[in-house]
Amino acid sequence: MNNVILSLENVTMQFGGVVALNDVSFEIRKQEILGLIGPNGAGKTTVFNVITGVYQLTKGDILFQGESIQGDKRYRITNKGIARTFQNIRLWGDMTALENVVTATDTHKKSGLLSGLFGLPVSRKEEKRDKVRAQEILDFIGIGEYADRLAKNLPYGVQRRLEIARALGTNPKLLLLDEPAAGFNPAEKVELAETIRKIRDAGYTVLLIEHDMSLVMGVSDRVVVIDFGQKIADDLPAKVQNDKRVVEAYLGVPDDAS
Amino acid sequence: MFNLRDWGADLWDRSNKFTRILISVSAIGVAASLPFLGGTFLNTPVAEYESVLVFPIAIFVIMALGLNIVIGKSGLLDLGYVAFFAIGAYTMGLLGTKTNLNSWEILPIGIAMAMFAGLILGVPALRLRGDYLAIITLGFGEIVRITALNLNAIGGANGIVGIPTPPTIFGLEYTFDNHRLYYWTFLIIILLTIWMIRRLSVRRGGRAWESIRQDEDAAELMGVPTFRYKIWAFVLGASVGGAAGVLYASKTLFISPDNFTLQVSILILACVIFGGMGNIWGVILGAVILGYLPDRIRFLSDARLLVFGIVLVLMMNLRPDGVLPRKKREKVLPKKDLK
Q1: Residues in chain A closer than 8 A to B196 (CB atoms)
Q2: Domain boundary pick from A138, A165, A192
Q3: Any CB–CB contact under 8 A between A128 and chain B?
Q4: How many Cβ atoms from other residues are within 10 Å of residue B16's Cβ?
């Protein structure tokens, strides 16, 4: 399988006695939208945290483009091409929208701090290039008009979108979206679904955590379901919806079934 | 309500290159003419006015600018900043008395020593955050002072006496009471520091520091090598502190461990917070006020520190973000590059 971009191999994550992820394996293919769902506390955000290096695995391995990223520093993982958004918005509030995105381009800069200090041409060129690119990303996500506004003063929906724009600023190959539609009304969710498809069509791969079933099922190419830290399904959206274990995980097991 | 910070920033934004140069030149002119205002209401009743301008005011401004890189820009609470000041001063004291190097030659060495100390402290300390970092830096400040106190090779409790004045340049002689010349020299260092901070603020480094200050985890996950940038902040802050130390030693000509107590760290920190963390103009104003005020109200004798304290408490209640807070206006990045 040459088109696999990220694979989790028997990933186990323990916090003391609590097993947050138990022997989870799945893979993400290039340019697909993979939905990751599960009931509250199933371990979805933990998956994001192990992929982005926030937690060190207890067991297992994570391969990104065939290379293990287990144990890499967090900014190195981002540099290699994995970027994420946060479930609870964590923008840099005292910076403008544009600055938020420009700051995220830091990882691919070549000119150092000192060449910036002395205003060397290499630094100036990069500054200009990154500002232009940041504005392009904002336009692409549809919030270009807010470029000069401070992030903390932006409407909630724009902040959520800015989180995505900032992640794109790192020029990732794989984009992890952690509940991007939280707090959105149905119309905004439809717009977001379009944006996510647009991102995929632009060549990015997307791993999406979302609670809104119609959004996940509508936008995902494939869905992985986890429950109590274990993978219980990995299939096309239509099939997952009818999977017995998935239905049980969400609705519970009838008392007389056992 | 009139807002000095926004008024100044707007004026600057609206100005073209020519007006900007005009504003800068006149501001520097005002700063440079301060020593001539000794006869006015600014005069300090007991201490010599021109000498107060050099120390504490100019030295405080330099140190507060340096500490502002660490605390105001990057959000790293450093309670041992005096250590870098001490290292700069002791470098000047030792090399000045034991070798033939003059102050200008020692200045870069002192800066390098302070930067090196910043690196040595930063590598272990900057793995910690917040309160823990504050405690480690507090300890570092004390370690440096107590080492100086107990190390007889560098004078012990007696300190170092007979530090030479800077050599004559352009026919200008640095005699002990030529305060104006010292003041102007220090002003040049202040301007250089301002230039450095302003340059860094609008570029890669400044943005990275800003992101670290606001949310360090988010910064690292967005690909900002936070540890490296924190080290940079520490080292650059230390370099400014070291420069202040070298200048201080070649002005007072006598240093002892008593000059480098925790109180100095706290006072410089107060300058930064009082003036407005993160805003260099605020920080400068804070350092000028806190350097100047104790000497201006010296006629109160024993009640002086009480009044000083009351002023601090009142100010922090009325303006918790400082006299001139960091700018929170929109449109920070110049848009001209996009066209």
Answers
A1: 117
A2: A165
A3: yes
A4: 8
DSSP for residue A202: T
Q: Do B214 and A84 touch (CB under 8 A)?
A: no
**pTM for the full model?**
0.90
Residue type, A84: R
- Each residue's pLDDT, cut to its tens digit, for chain A (258 residues) gives 568 999 999 999 999 889 999 999 999 999 999 999 998 888 999 999 999 999 999 999 999 999 999 989 999 999 999 999 999 999 999 899 999 999 999 888 877 777 777 777 888 888 889 999 999 999 999 999 999 999 999 999 999 999 999 999 999 999 999 999 999 999 999 999 999 999 999 999 999 999 888 899 999 999 999 999 999 999 999 998 888 888 888 877 777 655
Q: Residues 100..119 of B with a Cβ closer than 8 Å to A: which? A: none
Distance of alpha carbon A27 from alpha carbon A8, whole angstroms: 6
- A interface test, pick of B69, B201, B204, B226 with most A CB neighbours within 10 Å: B204
Q: Do A106 and B330 touch (CB under 8 A)?
A: no
CA distance A73 to B223: 10
From the CA of B197, how many Å to the nearest CA of chain A? 8
Please give the residue range of the domain that contains residue B96. 48-261
Q: What is the ipTM of this complex?
A: 0.90
Count of domains observed in chain A: 2
Number of structural domains found in chain B: 1
Domain span including residue A109: 90-165
Output the CA torsion B270→B272→B276→B279 (10° steps): 180
